[in-house]
Amino acid sequence: MSEGFSADWLDLREPYDAAACSSFLRDHLVAWCHGRETLRIVDLGAGTGAQLRRLSPRLGTGQHWILVEHDPALIAAGGARLAAVGVSWRYRCLDLARDLEALATERADLIAASALIDLVAAPWLGRLLALRAAAGAALYLTLCYDGRMVWEPADPGDAEIAALVDRHQRTDKGFGPALGPEAAASVREALAGLPGELLTERSDWRLGEGDAAIQTALLAGYLEAAAAIAAPAARRRIAAWGERRARLVASRRSRLTVGHLDLLFLPPG
């Protein structure tokens, strides 16, 4: 998911996303796509096209990607990054919160989204699943944040910050009150019992001592989210926690696991 995020942040996280995504689910999707003469992929919140770059070399011939993005700056950046990609693609500038149903005209075989579903509300998720059902499409959702945040070495303030970030995750991100860490479970519940195959795998970011740049960026985001939710009396504790964590990151003594889940639904046939 890209709306509200910069191209620099998307570039920073791209290699970590690629390393984290479940190879088992990816290979299962590749096998499902094998032998198709054409494959129309609608990528929601496509940003600069990272998911296309990640998947297209594995999906064979006949691909056509519709990259759905609302931010003109990211569309321009993505166009430059995708100029040499050897598959058919085009951007579609669209407000996903308001105009999701307009994508029915794209006749998708596969609907994909990365780092999106935890930002949306339950009614919007219902709209997405209705769109998928009408198209008879497969659904591939990667890097859904599930609420796990484990810093090493541990700090007494970690639990408080994690709880505040969790609360912030559930605030409105433009789609209504967000599902946050419950998103993947909500998708599984909605799809359970439908004909087809439903699979879920972990896709955690595992950031080591050498991954200081992304840890620094995440730390800044967590501090901002926690401060936005916390009572005024807690803000001094939050700032002190951030200073302790920043020293560990700067001295290359910090490790961080951020929990994500990937989900794949393959319709019959």
TrEMBL record:
Identify the EC number(s).
2.1.-.-
Recorded GO molecular functions are: methyltransferase activity
Q: Which InterPro entries match?
A: SAM-dependent_MTases_sf
- SUPFAM superfamilies documented for this protein: S-adenosyl-L-methionine-dependent methyltransferases
Q: Does the keyword Methyltransferase apply?
A: yes
Q: Which UniProt keywords apply?
A: Methyltransferase, Transferase
| Highest taxon, organism lineage | Bacteria
> Key word Transferase present in the record?
yes
Kindly list the biological process annotations in GO that this record carries: methylation
> Which protein, by its recorded name, is this?
Class I SAM-dependent methyltransferase
Origin organism is: Benzoatithermus flavus
Taxonomy, top ranks, is: Bacteria, Pseudomonadati, Pseudomonadota, Alphaproteobacteria, Geminicoccales
